[in-house]
Amino acid sequence: MTANKEWLLKISNLNVSDVLKEMNSGQLDEYVQMLNSFIESYPAREEKIKTELAANDYDNCRKSLLELCDTLKKIHADILSEECTRRADSLKDGEDGKSTAHVTNFLAAISALSADIQMAMIQKDTQAAQTKWLMKISNLNVSGIVNEMDDSQLKGYIQLLNVFIESYPDREEKIKTDLAENNYASCAKRLSELCDVLKKIHADVLAEECMRQADSLKDNADEKSAARITNFLAAVSALSIDVQMEMFKKGSQAAAPLGVTENSILAVDDVAFFLSTLKSFLGDTNCKLTCVTSGEAALRFIRNHKPDLFLLDIDMPGMDGYLLARKIRENGQNAPIIFLTGNATKSYVVRAIEVGAVDFIVKPINREQLLEKIGKYISLVNPGSGGAG
């Protein structure tokens, strides 16, 4: 049973288990529309029946009950429909003193059904909102798949995505090391393992390309193979960053717990492994770290977000950190900018100040240095004692 039908099975007094198996998508839409019509029309129906009972207008009350019975049949509330017929029949010969109470109690059961349907619809819409962010991630082919997932399966899938983004920087570094050492057998094995991960998260196109790159190393490994694999790894890094960005945007829509202020940091560095190091150093602070590997990705991010602090690498291909800093300021973002660099010469410092930077962090960094620098500009909670990185 697919998830877009599963929510209906949770509604008491709807006998739809077998019926849903036979429905196509069009029939399902029509059925849901009937449910909507039922819950919209029922309050007026209930009020009419109660008014007729109060006026001792049993003939019209019986007629109204039979009309309600037909509606209950259409939405497959079979038990309630049968009970509705019995209540209507009890009014054939007039009210006996108990019929009014019986009908009133029956109407309460129908009200409960209406409330159950509305609650199930709200829960369904909530799940749809939870999965909508997944559809925005390029290279994840999940549009049909997530609609089939129940809550448990969705949580499991999101956990797979988290494992992917946490493990990828280390995988990437090892593959690049194998390439640098011409260890093509090991590189092919690591690519095959990455392929399995990409399949599990439904990054199908990248998984196929990953397997092609692994196969290319079996018989014809050369310098061109290394270049192709490096380009491929950049595409996988982009996927990892896209997933993180969408997760951040999804998370930012939820209210923070009372008394807790979560600061957001945007880190930009073309080396994904370094971004992973930053993430591990900030893991137990109150900072929400979003990582991207290019200036272009950073500018896309700040169209809809205002980070509390920027960590920018200076030496990046394409748009370097200086140009990115200028564009950040031109976009009206005034948060502190800290540059990350392996070169802290005077010319670097002067130019950094000119584009609006407030500080430098010199690579290689350690955790204490990072927290000290960031803590000068935004609040850190529970930074821990961590060792040198």
SSE diagram, text form:
Layout: H1 3-9, H2 17-21, H3 25-54, H4 58-74, H5 78-89, H6 99-132, H7 151-180, H8 184-200, H9 204-219, H10 223-252, E1 263-268, H11 272-281, E2 287-292, H12 295-302, E3 309-313, H13 321-330, E4 337-341, H14 346-354, E5 359-362, H15 367-375
Parallel strand pairs: 1-2, 1-3, 3-4, 4-5
Description:
63% of the residues lie in helices and 7% in strands. The protein has 389 residues and is of the alpha/beta class. It folds into 3 domains: 3-134, no CATH class; 146-248; 255-375, Response regulator (Rossmann fold, 3-Layer(aba) Sandwich). Mean pLDDT is 83; it is low at 252-260 and 382-389.
Summarize the entry for a quick read:
63% of the residues lie in helices and 7% in strands. It has 15 helices and five strands.
Query: What is the helical fraction, as a range of percent?
Result: 55-70%
Q: Give Rg in angstroms.
A: 31 Å
Distance between the termini: 49 Å
Instruction: Give helix and strand order, one letter per element, not per position.
Output: HHHHHHHHHHEHEHEHEHEH
Tell me the structural class: alpha/beta
The low-pLDDT segments are 252-260, 382-389
- Classify the beta-strand content into a percent band: 5-15%
Query: What's the total count of β strands?
Result: 5
- Average per-residue pLDDT, rounded, comes to 83
The total number of structural domains is: 3
Oligomer: single chain
Largest sheet: 5 strands, parallel
Number of helices: 15
Shape: elongated
- Strand order in space, largest sheet: 2-1-3-4-5
